[in-house]
Amino acid sequence: MMKDPQIVAGAIEHTLLRPDAGENDLERLCEEAIQYGFHAVCVNPSRVGFVREYLINSPVRVCTVVGFPLGATLTEVKVFEAMRAVEKGADEIDMVMNVGLAKEGRWNLLRDEIRAVALAIPGVVLKVIIETGLLDQEEIITSSRVVEEGGAGFVKTSTGYGPRGATLSDIQAIKEAVSDRMGIKASGGIRALNEVLSFLEAGASRIGTSAGVKIMEELRGAS
User: Fold this and answer.
1) N or C terminus of the chain: which is more exposed, having fewer CB within 10 Å?
2) Would you say residue 146 has pLDDT above 60?
3) 112 flagged as catalytic
4) Does the active-site annotation cover 94?
């Protein structure tokens, strides 16, 4: 298992999507990301400008969410939200797909929506949250393929607000469905070092978690 602190920290997107989070919470999030060397902070769209300014001289990237947490907003709203977030300083966008379209098997419409957002933010990393807890195995596989066909760079498992978070079988199904150029972000309910290591070993390249500090302290103790 990969217990190199740099590898683990470099995979973590330090996440704070609570609706009641204030600027003091966001400052702490940014300081922790700098201290531990996390890949990114992930915050709500209205907070992108604040964290961008706070992290201006730091290598920590700024990630935000679009169509969050249900994915059921209009395509044009997702496009606008993604573009404005990038203008405000977001480096990466995590968009929730329209899960209803997936459940109905309306794959062309789903692909078109993903493509519309991808084309609106060229050069920006787009991750698409497929909310695996609402999908069966076949829907996870097909959704993952459609995400790649739509031009996104990552498939992400969960919002953290669905019926469950990421599982190892989710990661394995996604990995089998997409090409090697695609990244996989495991998120939702990941709070322990052994979980992070298992997800990385299974093929995830990013970990979305609000427990990054606890995980790194656990790793430090294990070392």
Assistant:
1) C
2) yes
3) no
4) yes
CA 177 to CA 94: how far, in whole Å?
19
Q: Mark whether 3 is an active-site residue.
A: no
Residue-wise pLDDT for 163-210, tens only, equals 999 999 999 999 999 999 999 999 999 999 999 999 999 999 999 999
Question: Hey, what CATH topology would domain 5-222 get?
Answer: TIM Barrel (3.20.20)
Residue bearing tokens 């203008």: 87
Q: In terms of Cα–Cα distance, which of 57, 127, 125 is closest to 95?
A: 127
Angle at 153 between CA 150 and CA 155, to 5 degrees: 85
Domain ranges of the chain: 5-222
SS (H, E, C) 140-179: HHHHHHHHHHCCCCEEECCCCCCCCCCCHHHHHHHHHHCC
CA neighbor of 100 nearest in space, from 127, 82, 74: 74
Give the CA angle between residues 193, 196, 200 to the nearest 5°: 140
Rounded Cα distance between 203 and 196, Å, is: 11
- Which residue in 94, 103, 112, 214 is the catalytic one? 94
